[in-house]
Amino acid sequence: MKKKLTGTGVALVTPFHKQGTIDFGSLEKLIEHTINNGVNYLVVLGTTGEAATLSKDEKNALVQFVKDQVDKRVPLVLGMGGYNTQEVINNLQTFDSDGIDAILSVTPYYNKPSQRGLYLHYKHIASASPLPVIMYNVPGRTSVNMKAETTLQLASEFENIIGIKEASGNMSQIMEIIRLRPRDFLVISGDDGITMPLIAAGANGVISVVANAFPAAYSAMVNASLQGKLDEARRLHYHMLPLIDALFADGSPGGIKAALDIMKLVPNNLRLPVVKVNKATQNLIGSILSDLREKGIEC
Question: Is residue 282 part of a domain?
């Protein structure tokens, strides 16, 4: 599993038609764009996929479509988390896990649990999950940070907790996890902008937003970092960094959908409360995309 989920994962956006229904045609195009350009695995129903705005029936239809389209060409990770531990467990026990390689489960949001609460939440999920579990720490969205000691305790006590997507932005915390983790425990960057230095410090890859649009260039940067080719990794990292910053300037996934629309891959439609980026940000994204094309950075 460590080998399968090393490298570049893509947190797929969910394309919508203008009237708000799921645009499966654009989703097919996006899946082929990412797989054909070298990503290692896909993540469906993550934050970038606007999973919080989808109904249960829509989620089921979306997951089935992705499984059918991918057809086991790359591993699939399914986002499945929440602030109600028992509800997450109920979902784990009833969903069809065929064709899914692991689940990505975010720390409980809104409730702001203590470190003991986080530990017990993941303990119960690990005990109930039919699939390997990747924890997801993103305090900027959840208002709670899972500390390194809590992550390491869970990593050492539960064999099917196989990794963490770390999006705290706290380099010291993430490096502490890397330093003390069990041998096969994955540390996955959740921030496109610091993936290169994290891999240099020992992380295993990324679950990326920008790779929806630039799977080839971003995968090349990740692979160069993993291979210790840091001059090449830095070159690509600094080429991509202005785009990454612009994509998150007005929030995500508004930025990446603006880029995908400019690239004619996915229409720029979102579901409330997520809205489009402002005009200035959209123009900036367009300008950066043009600059990357002029520099020969392949999407």
Answer: no
Which residue out of 41, 59, 122, 165 is catalytically annotated? Answer: 165
Check if the beta carbon of residue 126 is closer than 8 Å to that of residue 162. no
- Domain assignment present for 51: yes
User: Tokens standing for 9?
Assistant: 């994962």
- For the chain, how many structural domains are there in total? 1
Bond before 253 cis per omega within 30 degrees: yes
Catalytic residue among 119, 136, 218, 257: 136
pLDDT digits (tens, 9 = 90+) for 244-292: 999 999 999 999 999 999 999 999 999 999 999 999 999 999 999 999 9
CATH code of the domain in which 44 resides: 3.20.20.70
Specify whether 29 is catalytic: no
Domain span at residue 107?
Answer: 7-229
Residue 165 annotated in active site: yes
**Number of neighbouring beta carbons within 10 Å of residue 225:** 25
Mean pLDDT of 224-229: 98
